Amino acid sequence: MVPEGMLTLFSACDRYLPHTDKPVGNRQRSKQRGCATFGQSKRDINPGIFNGHVTGPASDASPPPLSDRFLTMHTLTDDGTRLFLSRMGDRGSPPLILAHGTFSNQRSCAPLASHLAARGWQCWLFDWRGHGHSDTPRRSFDFETLATQDVPAVLRAVEENCAPLRPFWLGHSAGAVIAAMWLARQAPACERLAGLQMLAAQASSRQRSWAMQQKIRLISCLLPLRRQIASHWMPLATEAESSRLLRQWCRWNLQGRMQGGDGFDYLAALGRQQLPVLALAGGGDDFISPAEGCQRLLDSFGSPGKRYVLCSQAQGFVEDYSHERLLLSKNAKNEIWPLLENWLHQHMARSEPEPSPKQNSLLLTPTNRVTVLAESGSNGEPR
User: Fold this and answer.
1) Is 281 helix (H, G, I), strand (E, B) or coil?
2) What is the pLDDT of residues 308-360, one digit of tens each?
3) DSSP strands (E only) in 89-212
4) Whole-Å CA distances, 374 to 68, 106, 154, 357
5) Is 185 helix (H, G, I), strand (E, B) or coil?
6) Closest CA to 226 of 242, 215, 214, 248
7) Which of 133, 142, 184, 281 has its CB 3.0 to 4.6 Å from that of 248, i.e. a possible disulfide?
8) Which residues contact 371 (CB under 8 A, 6 or more apart)?
9) Could you say which architecture CATH assigns to the domain 69-375?
């Protein structure tokens, strides 16, 4: 039972949180509908919720039917957390890992994955710890936990199933940030990823208005009151989120740098990586991932083949994309998804690396980490 005083504080905070034009239900309606707890998907409570949208009019980015070429499995991280993965597409096709962001799960990436799988890509999706069908950790976690535990575990699982092909990584928001953080701690010119696509991804921007920076300060002060933040506090959220992770995001954005608990400078270390990188920023994303922060993260890479695209009307796009609509909207399906697909095809050859003893040794991981749950004809739900 949450103390009434704490709810009052968060109600006050709710007035300062970023809002969209979609109204958020009041607390009484949330109680009647049922709210997700930490590690519990809202779709388990309300089956009408799909792809990060609350019940209501159908999303204008409804996914096509899933292919019969479908696989679900679990894999273990080094700290013993079980993660849920699924695959769309043909074996032997170039692999692509799609990673969701905060307050979400892999279903937010499912429409894009289905689109790309129908066009010749082997798409792998996964749920972070504490999200979707992955294990709920006993301890709180932050970006560094995901980057040092979840990312390598997922990468190992994909390598075990797809070797010698190298996967690309496509991340929305924090789903791209954790991949960049993992790369920052690898040896120079790491070759385990063929390329990286970052949609609305940043964690160190200070180029906001004074009011928005104060909003982050207020949120940062209230976050320690809870171990996790329930999904109904955020518009369009489908999952509860780790308070520790959100506090880290607030701190980095207030300080203007991504510094690890051990003092590691993530942005500085990215200069050692040479893989192709594509970064997309939304012209209407002023709070979570401002364009300046997205470009700053991209510029940190030492890659000669990096590209930045601001998705705004001034740049010829049909709208100034918000944080969510850059991934899921009818307009995104018509002009953002083809952009991502074209970039992937331009770099497809990088998925086939030249064999080397050093690289092959990276793929020798224990096979008992991965447990296949269902294949061919599954409806995508774990049994």
Assistant:
1) strand
2) 999 999 999 999 999 999 999 999 999 999 999 999 999 999 999 665 544 44
3) 95-99, 122-126, 168-172, 195-199
4) 11, 17, 17, 33
5) coil
6) 242
7) 142
8) 73, 74, 75
9) 3-Layer(aba) Sandwich (3.40)
CA distances from 357 to 188, 191, 232, 317, 353 (A): 17, 13, 50, 46, 12
Can you list the positions of beta strands (E) in 205-328? Answer: 228-229, 241-242, 277-282, 306-311
DSSP 309-324: EEESGGGT-SS---TT
Write the burial class of residue 316 (CB in 10 Å: 0-12 exposed, 13-18 middle, 19+ buried).
exposed
Domain locations along the chain: 69-375
CB 302 within 8 A of CB 220: no
- What distance in Å separates the CA atoms of residue 158 and residue 155, rounded to the nearest whole number? 5
The secondary structure of residue 69, as a DSSP letter, is -
What is the C-alpha separation between 165 and 375, in angstroms, rounded?
21
Rounded to whole angstroms, how far apart are CA atoms 238 and 30? 13
Give the pLDDT score at 354.
Answer: 64
How far apart CA 369 and CA 131 sit, in angstroms, is 19
- Interval 230-281: pLDDT, tens: 776 677 778 889 999 999 999 999 999 999 999 999 999 999 999 999 999 9
